[in-house]
Amino acid sequence: MIRQPSLRRLLLIWLLPAMLALVAAGGLMAYGIALRSATWAYDRALLDTSLALSGQIHIVSGHPVLNLPSQAQEILLTDRYDNVFYEVIGPQGESVAGHRGIPRPPQQLPEDGRIYYDGWFHDREVRVAALFVLREGIPLLILAAETQTKRDNLVREILTSMLLPELLLVAATLGLGWLGIRHGLKPVEDLREQLSQRSHHDLSAVSSDRVPREIGPLVEELNHLLSRLDGSLSAQRNFVSDAAHQLRTPLAALQAQAELALRRLNGPAPAQTGELRAELERILAATRRLTHLAHQLLALARAEPGGEQAMKPLDLVEVVHQCAETWHPRALERNIDLGFDLAPAPLLGHPRLLEELLSNLIDNAIHYTPAGGSVTVRTFARDGAAVLQVDDTGPGIAPEQREKVFERFHRINGEQNPEGCGLGLAIVREIAKQHGADVWLDEAPVLGGARLEVSFPPPPGR
Asked: N or C: fewer beta carbons within 10 Å in the chain?
């Protein structure tokens, strides 16, 4: 099993490099400050040594002489941590006194006659202070050098004193950050606990009263998902309930007719062929009604939310062409003129569901149109939206009934139609909802019967 990363650990991992970078930057700044401070302080001390030596130089017979008693030299050169060296250089670059071989200045002396630089003396790194002086017109260069042990110790002490509090601050920040993250993630843990205690039947919205603003969108999307899931499950329950209710009656009738035919066949006076044929025809009619009902129920299930929803660009004219061959024979059988007035009507939709929608509209129109009447299917585009209209010469639908006819199993004035099941227009409305379309019922202005119109939203990019 793959171990899931901890959000707390990820947040700290993202935070730690930034803090370490800040500490490193602070350390570099502290090191630079400490180094400059130590260098300035000890350079001044070296310069004082050079100045003290310059005060002991005298010119004797035109030659510089360093008059430095041994006791003064011992005091001058004594240091607890470092070794101190000096050298007096004459006008010709000759060594007048002191330790020979101290590195000379790497560049020309500035106007104030003082310069500080690093070098090597007897395989040891030293810091040198060079001082240019004139004694009775004779130019002299006085060099004072010392090893850098004190400097390194001072830099280390300053750096430690500055970095240690920063490291402690980093540790304290990480600890407080861990606690803060833990406290900040508590609403997520509370949400998990709330969901874990729910029944699998409970699809109500999750409370967002005490949810932080950053988690609010997550809870909102979760509630949307629960709402859609609840709608899908409700549709499934409704479908099962409707199917059980509607199938019970035709199944009972089919069973009763089959039992009656069997009794007549096996009774003391066997049924004649004509009587048996009549019974079998009733059984066949009941079977056809049952098949139609099953087809309508399955069509309704596909039209419910959560059913088939794959959309693609198409034209309503294509959908009409697919359905025309199926419904022309039915219209001719009932002596009804099924006509078409087709203009391009592009949309984004599911071909199978749209064919089901149109089939139910035509079926409904043919059913209510008397023999010799007319049904017209029309497609066109209006303001970029595809429109489908089905007009008939039937009796029409009263205004007070026009909303109710879209309800499941609703029959106008309680009619008992042996061929219908009251699901056609309910299927139409569900499929229209899947496509974001509007459906309404009106009076056909030319044919005088009912007009059912479905208006689809414009396809993207129009």
From this structure: N
